[in-house]
Amino acid sequence: MSETVISVENLSKKYVLGKNGTSEGLRHAVQNFVTAPLRWLKPQSNHGEPGKNGSHSAHKKSANDFWALKDVSFELRQGEVLGVIGRNGAGKSTLLKILSRITEQTEGRVEITGRVASLLEVGTGFHPELTGRENIFLNGAILGMSRLEIRQKFDAMVAFAEVERFLDTPVKRYSSGMYVRLAFAVAAHLEPEILIIDEVLAVGDAQFQKKCLGKMQEVSKGGRTVIFVSHNMGTVTSLCSRALWMAQGRVHRTGPVREVINDYLSKGMASDYKTISLKEIARPSFVHDDRLRLENIEWLCNVPLQHGEPAEALITFSTTGPVEGVSVGIGFSTVEGTRLLSYDTDYQTGHRSDFSKAGSYSVKLAIESLPLGPAMYSLDIGCRSGDSHALDYLPAVVQVEVIPGPTTPGSIVRQDAGVRCQSRCTWD
Amino acid sequence: MGNAQTTKLILDPGRAAKNYWLDLFRYRELFLILAWRDVLVRYKQTAAGAAWALLQPLMSILIMTVVFGMLAGLPSPHNTPYAIMVCAAMLPWQFFSNALSLASQSVVSNASLISKIYFPRMIVPVSSIVVSLVDFLVACSILVGLMIWYHFWPTWRMLVLPPLVLLAVVAALGPGLIITALTVRYRDFRMIIPFIIQFGMYVCPVGMSSDFIHDKLIAKLGSVLGEKFFMLYSLNPMVGVIDGFRWAILGNASVFYWPGFILSAILTLVLLWVGIRFFRNTERAFADII
Question: From CA A241, how far away is CA A228, in angstroms rounded?
């Protein structure tokens, strides 16, 4: 068994609400400072006893106290990749901040063996006035690389970011894509023993995301110990071996990644992403007919969708007058735009609906077993009248994540867009 | 960063800073690169560029020379050119005031770094002092120019300048750290700094010589009380630095007031100690309160 490299015991972090330093008043601060050497003379209390080793104000109980973390304990062994999941405000970022020494815990103890690098943001410290070349050195140093190390990896970084031609241009003139690529390129060449990452993959275009993911997989397979916070369940499943589910500052559950994520998805997910409003989105110019407008698409099943599991969606639309021969269609494309899977109401049956008056209508799509492999897909949705008259059309309206389901074979757990099916579906 | 393969890091509340100085040493590359960034960025997208490091002190020297030397007709010891006397004080003073104002802004303007990455926070204000030091070195060419213009030849005393520059750095560092830490918590200090700097220009013997102030105090208050007040006046760390500069640059034309210099050097060290302690006490919470 490999050795424990990170051990966290009863970690707690308290914030006092509605009170930043200022309201304590200058007088209090001055007084505090004057008496500081006196406090310092007192013997230090033992570690590991909650309540005793906090600052003096930790003893006072207050309704304004907010525990961002409370009694979090876990251990991580060499080479393990831990995915930290949970809703916003569950304490994930606070945990990472303490582990990367940015902020200090109120109580508890952390032991870390090895060189740590943390990546809480892509491009930390990038300076807009400096050139790409200068920023590589700056950012590298900020992430903890030595100058020698950066020089050795410089060419690889530049090639990875695909910015060769713009190396001597200030990054403020970069497109946001180039900026992010350069930033990630530096981060990707970091080689610490322990890597702490917060949601950094949520950047860049789809193709670059894929490249980043590949790099991350390389890192996680290379025996590096990684702590990874993400809302992207597919990424967590494919990268991590263990998962830590946090809720309200505490560890809700920890265990093998599949088990924890399945549990999380069935109980823990908010319905935030479930309904996608289509009303405000601009239509392509070839949609001239305004008699029918798609309004919402709502998932009636768990999101993210799971490969091999049933999926249900309710599509609502409104008409402003009589429309005949209407069919509704929904399509899944790769994020690069290749259509993989389409469902149409008139497929095989040829059944189209006539609407005689203005009103709101809905149609439900039930997919018996979603054939899409675990990856990100973009969703196209449209309505037509007859064979070719577009009533409304929304290409790539939203990205949909598909994660491995219980029946997904281990061989395709990797992020790999594609249809893997033995599928039937019904519309009603 | 650490080269040792098995560096064990223990995080305990209130004890995180155990090997702080070692950490500071480990992060020396980051320090150098931040200082390099600050120097590089300082005059980016300005038309005059680094000439600003010359223009500002040059204009101030000109004004002081005209107002105090020519209009008010204040004396310059042993008839050294008034401009050189002002220059010898203006250079360290500008260094000090730049360092103070840059340092006070430094942590706040690097907020995104502070809240995203760990490093000993002291690097940030210290690197802004390096920027002021670079400006200072550039501005030293004014002094060289003036000395050539007035055919004023340096003496061996110029060799004392490097340690005096060091003293000026220390004098800026102590108050700089205090003000930096205070600015993180109370942004009020952003408003206070320009005032302190303006005020300090008149409290320090920039536009006139310390001898002149000494003589005035004696004349107004009598020799006993006057000496006492002059001692009090010498407590100001920058008085020691400026008088030292004058002594070194003006050569035999300047007398040296040892008790005042020692006093202000001691106070400088005390301020440094207080500054470091105060900064270290506050920096652990920087990410939370910034």
Answer: 11
Please indicate, yes or no, whether residues A231 and A310 belong to a single structural domain of this protein: no
Residues in CB range of A156: below 8 A, 6 or more apart: A189
Q: Which of B271, B207, B202, B201 is nearest to B235 (CA)?
A: B271
Residue range of the domain that includes A336 = 275-427
Residues A247 and A299 in one domain: no
The yes-or-no verdict on residue A45 having pLDDT over 60 is no
A342 CB-near residues (< 8 Å, 6+ apart)? A329, A330, A331, A332
Nearest to A132 by CA among A160, A155, A164, A159: A164
pLDDT tens column, B226-285: 888 888 888 888 998 998 998 888 876 666 778 888 888 999 999 999 999 999 888 888
Q: How many domains does chain A have?
A: 2
Query: A90 — phi, psi (to 5°)?
Result: -80, -10
B26 CB-contact burial (10 Å; exposed 0-12 / middle 13-18 / buried 19+)? middle
Cβ neighbors of A125 (< 8 A, separation 6 or more) are: A138, A139, A142, B112, B113, B116, B117
**Do A294 and A215 belong together in one domain?**
no
A-chain residues near B6 (CB < 8 A): 113-114
Domain residue ranges in chain B: 29-39+49-289
Residue A12 covered by a domain:
no
Q: What does the angle CA B157 – CA B163 – CA B164 come to, to the nearest 5 degrees? A: 75
Inside any domain, residue A6? no
Separation between Cα atoms, residue B111 and residue B232, nearest integer Å: 39
Beta strand A305-306 with A389-403 is parallel
ipTM rounded to 2 decimals: 0.82
Q: Is A342 helix (H, G, I), strand (E, B) or coil?
A: strand
Indicate whether A61 belongs to any domain. no
Contact B11 A104 (CB under 8 A): yes
Map residue A251 onto helix, strand or coil: strand
Evaluate whether residue A4 is within a structural domain: no
Tallying the residues shown for chain B, one arrives at: 290
Q: What is the pLDDT of residue A219?
A: 76
Could you give the CA distance from residue B146 to residue B90 in angstroms, rounded to a whole number? 13
Residue of B nearest to A197 (CA): B116
Pair type for strands A225-229 and A81-85: parallel
pLDDT digits (tens, 9 = 90+) for A377-409: 888 899 988 888 888 888 877 778 888 888 777
The distance of Cα A23 from the centroid of its chain, to the nearest Å, equals 35
> Do A285 and A395 belong together in one domain?
yes
CB A413, CB A374: distance < 8 Å? yes
Q: What is the Cα–Cα distance from A113 to A382, expressed in whole angstroms?
A: 55
Using CB atoms, pick whichever of A97, A111, A138 lies closest to residue B10.
Answer: A111
Is the Cβ of A30 closer than 8 Å to some Cβ of chain B? no
Contact at CB, B37 and A147, closer than 8 angstroms: no
Distances (CA, A) of A201 to A142, A143, A187, A214, A338: 19, 17, 11, 11, 22
A39 and chain B in contact, CB less than 8 A: no
